[in-house]
Amino acid sequence: MSVSLGLRLYGWFSLRYARRHLWRTAAVILGLSLGAGVFVAVRLATTTSVRSFERSMDAVSGRAHFVVTRPGESVPFSLIRDLLSVTNVQTVSPITSLVVRVESMGQGAERGAVARWMGLDPVLDRPLRPWAAQRPEKAEEAQGWMRLMSEPDTVFVGSALAGTLGLEAGSAVMVQYQDRRRILKVLGILKDEGLGSAEGGLILLSDLATVQEFLGRFEGVDRVEGAFIEGRSEEGFRELKNVLGSSYAVDRPVERARSARSMVAAYEQNLSVLSFVSLFVGMFLVYSLTAFNSASRRREVAVMRALGASKRFVFSIFILDGLVLGLLGWAVGIPVSWGFSRHLMEAVSATVTLLFARVDVRTVSLSVWDVVVSIILTTAVAALAAWQPAHHMMMVPPTEAIRPRSSAPHEENKTRRLTTIGLGLLASVLPLSLMPPLRGVPVAGYAAVFFLFCGFSLLAPGVLKRISTMPSTLARRLGGEPCVLAFRQLEKAGARMAVSVGALITAVGLFTALVVMISSFRKTVETWVFQTVSGDLFVRPMMADLNGYRDPLPAHLVHFLQNISEADVVAYRRIPVTYRGVDCALEGIDLDGLLRHGGFLFLQGNPQHAYKAMKAGESVMVSEVFSRRTGLRVGDGMALSVHGVPLEFSVAGVYRDYRTQSAVIYMDLKVLQERTKDRAWSGVRLFFPGSEEARAQRAREVRDEILGHFGTRDVPDVMVGSTLRRDILRVFDETFAVTTVLLVMALMVAGLGMMTTLAIMVLERMVSLNTLKAIGASTGQVRRMLLWEALFLAVAGLVLGVVCGFALSVILIEVINAQSFGWTFLYHVAWDQLGVAFPLIAAASLAATIPAQRLAFRYSPVVLLREDEH
């Protein structure tokens, strides 16, 4: 048969039928478009944010092969000469950067933003990082790096910063950091490439001397980056370690970038997998419609077979139905995704900025690859959903063209086979969950989730059959004869119900798992917040977190805090370090003071032994994220260099930490001060006596006093403890905002799946239902029978879905989340939320019987019975 003839027959057989049942087809396309739209929207939002993050990482690291730092101190200028004398070093570039407050000094109301100010040597840095200004009007303006060196107090600004503050070449801005302020002239706007794309375009670029004059520090820089002669990297690293010794840290930018990228990639992958669930649930809708059409057109297929149509041709028609539905669902879903993508992009970019690094995404970027992936997945899912009905219809014998239509055949063997396959899939979930990640990606964990959903869906017909074995006397007492007939129908439902009930199982399972995961997350964070983030008032330098605590609290502010008589002052010193390519922080904490008011939430190790070893200077505590990303466990040894002093410790314990920059090493502050002679404070926690309300009131009074004395000079960050803890919980709640959208979509698609499932059951039994009416059954009895059937399906879906959800929650918490982000939670079930949701889901399932009931009473029993005689 030619392709053109096949398409003509398809148009006659399927498209014409779809037009006659437009609303039915439109409902399925709508459901599939929701799944496809959510999937594409999440892909757009995540890939746009991740690309911005990667551009920023690449722009900052440039072509550098190594980074030299001196944790706790600046790198002296004299080291640059030593580095250039190393045989295999080609070039080096000294850099100082910090996050500052930037305000526009133009006409009208002043506007402000937070941006990174990067000072570098324009000559030494050019081989490492390219950058250029937009539309230079004069030839000399094209040589922007020369103007930075020749004109004092000048900067180039990123396009995002320029757009936020309304800047252009010639504008003036004021930068502020702690007690320092300076007005700078804007020489031009950077192109969105090279350094211009760093920090999402929220960047200032100037000569190194300008930053040094602003900070009043001329003896050193934050770091020195450099490149080796091509092909001599390994020799160069060995030379550097011999020259620098243990006083300096030498890291590879590529390793630090790879570590950061792995975390962002994990976030992208997890969101994509969750969004795929909506598309996966949409598969059940395609199955329902294809099965509905096949059941209602069984005699037509038999006629086609009698006229010479092959099994292959019949199979192709129904598979093509699935492909067409997939394409239409994708086409309708694109506008849906475009509407979602803007809001999702804002939420995703905010989360990436909060957890990993700052990105500034203003437009959605759509790549050809995203389009191709979305089309392939949507059509593949739809074709897979149509496979079983297509295979079922290709087996219709030609003799059915002259035989009366009958109900679906008994499928005892198929039910047993599907149950066996389902149990086999479930048995593979545990081994898959125990497998390690593949290059940091929990591939086996994702496979375990997929097998879990499929396994429980395939158990549905066996469970329904088991329910149908209830004694007739018990069923009759439960709901009379309608209940008995409903039980008998469950026994005949067969394998076709597996995929349909699977929609409800998948949606309920996902809902249960996310509720458990989010409640576990929040409960653990609440425990951590009130135990580890204890304190009535927190004081730290301006934008300390954004600047990696580069500067300690000024001495006069420390003196003021020490003289607050009624306060218990617990100080800490935080120093940025890099260990095994992981950016982290070494924090010295007043351990005795912390333990008077709280402590650590231990994951591994004995708390009493750990605290004793920390006070003795023998050991440190590490966060769970640090442990997972570096591979260090309790008892392992580690070595660091701080202020040029080598430090060696063993790991005494691993604790839970849920801060955004949570790769942390904790040691006792007294030990850090004794070994490094560093007496500075990076911040303090103040504890006041009295009731909770009295402590909060005193904290607010001291905060106002600090800001009154030092607010205009040092501009410290001063936060009341109760407000800080509330903000932390709010931030963690916001990280799960995107999953709410995915969950709602999955439940909506599952509702449509239940509706079409019941309609299929009614259509297949149209004659038998009307026979019941003809022999005396009332309309109310038939309605109650359909309601009982829906209730049994809902109960089966809810029970299997809840069990599936609890299993899924364990995989999400202990496998996927732990392997992706390094976080695990204390398991907690929000029974109140589940107790409210499940009755609502059951009620919605019962409401789905309304269209099926209308279909059952659409024709007169006399008409249908007479038609069946011919």
User: What does the average pLDDT come to?
Assistant: 80
Globally, the shape reads elongated
Q: What is the CA-atom radius of gyration, in angstroms?
A: 33 Å
Largest sheet: 10 strands, mixed
Q: Give the termini distance in whole angstroms.
A: 32 Å
SS element count, helices: 30
Percent of residues in helical segments?
A: 55-70%
The number of strands is: 21
Please indicate the percent range of residues in DSSP E strands (runs of 2 or more). 5-15%
Stretches where pLDDT is under 50 for at least 5 consecutive residues are: 406-410
Q: Structural class, please?
A: alpha+beta
Commentary on this structure:
This protein is an alpha+beta fold and 870 residues long. Helix content is 60%, strand content 15%. It contains 30 helices and 21 strands. The strands form three sheets. Strands 12, 13, 14, 15, 16, 17, 18, 19, 20 and 21 form a ten-stranded mixed sheet that branches. It has a six-stranded mixed β-barrel with strand order 3-4-8-5-7-6, surrounded by four helices. A two-stranded antiparallel sheet has the order 2-9. β13 and β14 (582-589) form a beta hairpin.
Keywords:
21 strands; 60% helix; 870 residues; alpha+beta; 30 helices; ten-stranded mixed sheet; single chain; six-stranded mixed β-barrel; elongated
Write the layout of secondary structure elements.
Blueprint: H1 3-20, H2 22-61, E1 66-69, E2 75-76, H3 78-84, E3 89-104, E4 112-120, H4 122-125, H5 144-150, E5 154-157, H6 159-165, E6 172-177, E7 180-189, E8 203-207, H7 208-215, E9 220-221, E10 223-228, H8 233-244, E11 249-251, H9 253-296, H10 298-306, H11 311-355, H12 368-394, H13 412-427, H14 429-433, H15 443-468, H16 472-493, H17 496-531, E12 537-540, H18 555-562, E13 568-579, E14 582-589, H19 591-597, E15 602-604, H20 607-615, E16 619-623, H21 624-630, E17 637-642, E18 645-655, E19 664-668, H22 669-676, E20 683-687, H23 692-710, E21 717-720, H24 721-734, H25 737-764, H26 766-774, H27 779-821, H28 831-847, H29 849-856, H30 861-869
Parallel strand pairs: 4-8, 5-7, 14-19, 16-18
Antiparallel strand pairs: 1-10, 1-11, 2-9, 3-4, 3-6, 3-10, 5-8, 6-7, 12-20, 12-21, 13-14, 13-20, 15-18, 16-19, 17-18
